[in-house]
Design a protein that fits this description.
It contains six helices and 24 strands. By secondary structure, it is an alpha+beta fold.
Length: 384
């Protein structure tokens, strides 16, 4: 009995495992509720541009003078050279009849090809057919009078004055006849193509009455083209110093270059036109079949190269209220915002006229990250 009572007393004094486990759960629950438990802090984050240079986010370059040619982007137009644009006119009066070939703008023609004929038809006046028959009759009569005068002057039957009058009359009518006969054929006066090329415009319709000297069509001979670039008056300095141009047209992916097309700058306007506020710059080019005369072009004027220009990458430029600035880097890792005055750009670099000096170090790329880092550093703290 004493042994049994002793074992029962020892069991009553031993701690319960379930009670200990329950005590630990209660302790953990209390810790979460009061916020006493804290996670280990992660790795620190460095913001580029605050006080450390992070080459993975931005690039710093040292400014040096170097050769530079500006590029000015503007609009323009492809034109025919005035010497290659020929207007075909009627040599006589009458009614127009088109040739057998189709005559439409863009049609290729050959030198000497008959394009139109002009005939008198039933016209009571300005009748070429009637005029040709009359001039032929007058020529026959003048020839007979001149031949008779030659015989009579040899026999001294007529005076020198009468002989010269007969000869003058014959030569005058003969020249007029030759002029008409050169273009006159079956069906009327022929209008032929003076050069080979392409029809640009047709100014008359079949059956229309025309007068001598009236324009009937225009032809592009296709030897040279002209590129006209239009610039603003405040870019007159660029227009005067531009030496070449690259351009694109909407119907081709090709970039045309004047230096590859035997091009040269002809001139630039000294005033704006009546229907435009822009100043034209003209370049003469070799004819290119891919270019359509009269179409618009996107033009990049290229200036004369400067040997010692100070330039910054376009990616370094930031704008604030219409003013441009860059970030200048210091040895201690800080950055200063510096406003600059710029000139023209070549699409990759921009010339700096004032505000920077050779040897200074600037942020060439990632400038927006530097701006954000400075904004975060200068922002006031927000405490709860």
């Amino acid at each position: 009995m004493l042994f049994v009572l002793l074992l029962a007393g020892i069991a009553a004094c031993a701690p319960s495992s379930d009670a200990g486990h329950e005590s630990e759960e209660e302790h953990d629950h209390e810790a979460v509720t009061t916020g006493a438990h804290k996670e280990e802090p992660g790795p620190a984050t460095v913001i580029p541009g605050s006080h450390a240079q992070d080459s993975a986010h931005f690039e710093i370059v040292t400014l040096v003078t170097q050769p530079f040619s500006f590029v000015l982007k503007t609009g323009g137009r492809i034109m025919a050279d005035n010497r290659d644009l020929i207007t075909i006119t009627s040599k006589s009066s009458g009614l127009v009849k088109f040739g057998e070939e189709f005559l439409l703008p863009g049609v290729k023609i050959s030198q000497g090809q008959a394009l139109f004929s002009v005939a008198g038809g039933n016209l009571s006046d300005d009748n070429t057919d009637l005029r040709f028959r009359q001039i032929k009759s007058d020529l026959d009569r003048a020839r007979m009078n001149f031949e008779r005068a030659e015989k009579l002057i040899a026999e001294k039957i007529i005076t020198e004055e009468h002989y010269l009058a007969a000869r003058n009359e014959f030569e005058k009518i003969s020249s007029e006849y030759d002029n008409i006969e050169a273009v006159y054929g079956t069906g009327g006066s022929r209008v032929i193509a003076p050069v080979s090329g392409y029809i640009r415009d047709i100014f008359v319709a079949d059956g229309q009455k025309v007068m001598a000297g009236q324009p009937m069509a225009s032809v592009i001979s296709g030897r040279r083209l002209v590129l006209r670039a239009d610039v603003r008056p405040d870019d007159l300095a660029a227009a005067s110093s531009a030496v070449s141009a690259n351009f694109k047209v909407g119907y081709s992916d090709r970039i045309f270059k004047t230096v590859e097309m035997n091009g040269r700058k002809i001139s630039y306007g000294k005033s704006t036109g009546e229907s435009s506020l822009l100043i034209p710059v003209y370049f003469s080019l070799d004819y290119e079949p891919e270019l359509i005369e009269g179409t618009y072009a996107e033009v990049y004027l290229i200036g004369r190269q400067a040997a010692d220009a100070l330039t910054v990458p376009n990616s370094a430029l930031m704008e604030e209220f219409g003013r441009l600035y860059v970030f200048v880097a210091h040895e201690d890792g800080d950055f200063d915002k510096k406003y600059i005055t710029t000139g023209y750009s070549d699409g990759e670099k921009t010339q700096v006229l004032s505000g920077l000096n050779e040897g200074e170090r600037i942020v060439a790329s990632g400038t927006y990250l530097v701006k954000l880092s400075q904004m975060s550093v200068s922002a006031p703290a927000h405490n709860h």
